[in-house]
Q: What sequence folds into this?
């Protein structure tokens, strides 16, 4: 049974990638000798747009599953491994995307809010979301963790 399902659209990411594609396409017309590399760059940006423009999170009875875009990049965490969960605000320097931070891996498409999940192994990761309180409540309920006050 699903306890939670939400797709966050990375509006800023989409706008930045579309602007980059428009710039590359415009430059390819203005600089004919650079047309092929600029068209290739625009194609790479299009692939990035398809792969990373959204982040969908599903919390079910047994697991938390999340994926970017069309689902090629995805991660599954079994709720039996979840020890803690809390809404947090990411530092602006951590940005967006998938990368290591001082608090573990970050998976984010937009904004600064996230849910930090601590696993029984001690490792942590942050999952960006525009619904941190709702997502954390769903994880706590499905993982049978004690409820806590909001981190916001």
A:
């Amino acid at each position: 049974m699903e306890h939670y399902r939400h797709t966050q659209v990375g509006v800023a990411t989409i706008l930045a990638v579309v602007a980059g594609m428009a710039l590359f396409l415009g430059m390819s017309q203005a600089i004919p000798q650079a047309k092929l590399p600029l068209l290739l760059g625009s194609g790479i940006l299009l692939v990035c747009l398809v792969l990373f423009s959204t982040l969908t999170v599903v919390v079910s009875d047994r697991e938390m599953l999340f994926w970017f875009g069309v689902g090629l990049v995805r991660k599954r965490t079994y709720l039996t491994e979840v020890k803690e969960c809390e809404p947090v605000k990411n530092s602006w320097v951590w940005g967006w995307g998938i990368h290591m931070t001082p608090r573990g891996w970050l998976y984010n498409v937009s904004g600064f809010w996230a849910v930090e999940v601590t696993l029984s192994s001690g490792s942590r990761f942050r999952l960006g979301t525009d619904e941190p309180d709702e997502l954390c409540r769903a994880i706590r309920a499905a993982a049978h963790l004690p409820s806590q006050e909001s981190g916001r």
